[in-house]
Write a structure and sequence with these properties.
The protein is of the alpha/beta class and 276 residues long. The protein is 28% helix and 16% strand. The chain is globular and about 45 Å long. Bound molecules: 6-phosphogluconic acid. It comes from Geodermatophilus sabuli.
């Protein structure tokens, strides 16, 4: 990618035709997790109504995991809107390249929070490889995962339909495992190996912008006052993905910033709750 830092029109960013992001603010992290959990159930059910199947890309992190716990709670309430979990493909936006039983694995968190409870078939759970899964290097694991995505694409090659891609955001603006000023920012491959990551563990696998921005909808779920400056920069300043990777995220049909009031506190709108 040759676009200079700060250029929002960079090739991987989806182009100017993408809808501008919308912002939803909930009063606190618990209400945010509840609201996003309900919205995710509705979105997956809607995708299944149209396509027969749905797909979701999961994130690690505290608020992302809280959302999955909320979805599991909703799935246990039979009167609620139903998702057929046997027809949901689950992918990950990033993963730590550590052994499969390491507590740092995003996969383990998601299985405990949701997947074990709702019974997604094993062949639809597309975990990124662990470091003890037979790949000597994370680059090999990343290439394999890109192959998995390509194999799931309906027309061969490329990417499958990704209905909702969930992202958390770090206080410095990282999304998935794309960190500021890191090689992953400008790597055009759909899946990239990440080394020397600023946030431990240091070795990871991440979707690149070309895969993230291929999603139909991207939901950035952000809570806490520590994220407020990065939220304000991403939404209100002309900052590019090299400085603030979250600013480089743009879904095909929607980009939704789903915030609690603390994370929204530095927005010009003041972080007041608004209707979803
Ligand atoms: O693997 C990871 O580290 C996550 O995918 C990461 O991108 C996370 O979502 C953010 O760091 C926010 O995490 P919190 O919600 O815990 O702050």
């Amino acid at each position: 990618m040759t676009s200079p830092p700060g250029d929002r029109a960079a090739a991987n960013l989806g182009g100017a035709d993408r809808p501008v992001p919308d912002v939803v603010v909930e009063p606190d992290a618990d209400r945010l997790a509840r609201a996003v959990g309900s919205a995710l159930v509705a979105r997956l059910a809607a995708a299944q109504a149209v396509h027969g199947t749905a797909s979701v890309v999961l994130t690690g992190g505290g608020i992302g995991t809280a959302v999955l716990e909320r979805v599991a709670a909703l799935a246990a309430e039979p009167e609620r809107e139903r998702v057929d979990w046997t027809a949901v493909d689950v992918w990950w936006g990033d993963e730590r390249f550590v052994p499969a039983d390491d507590a740092d694995r995003n996969e383990l968190g998601a299985r405990r929070a949701l997947l074990d409870a709702v019974g997604v078939p094993a062949e639809r759970v597309h975990a990124m490889p662990a470091s003890d899964a037979g790949f000597a290097e994370p680059e090999d694991a990343a290439a394999w995962y890109a192959g998995q995505l390509a194999a799931a694409a309906s027309e061969g090659g490329g990417l499958p339909r990704l209905d909702v891609l969930l992202l958390g955001m770090g206080p410095e603006g990282h999304v998935a495992s794309i960190f500021p000023e890191s090689p992953a920012v400008s790597d055009e491959r759909p899946v990239v190996a990440v080394r020397d990551c600023a946030k431990p563990p240091p070795t990871r696998i991440s979707l690149g912008f070309s895969a993230i921005n291929a999603a139909e909808e991207i939901w950035l779920i952000v809570s806490g006052e520590g994220k407020a400056p990065a939220v304000a920069r991403a939404l209100q300043e002309d900052v590019g993905p090299r400085d603030l990777p979250a600013a480089g995220v743009r879904g095909r049909r929607a980009t939704r910033w789903l915030l609690d009031a603390a994370a929204a506190a530095e927005l010009d709108t003041g972080g007041q709750p608004v209707p979803a």
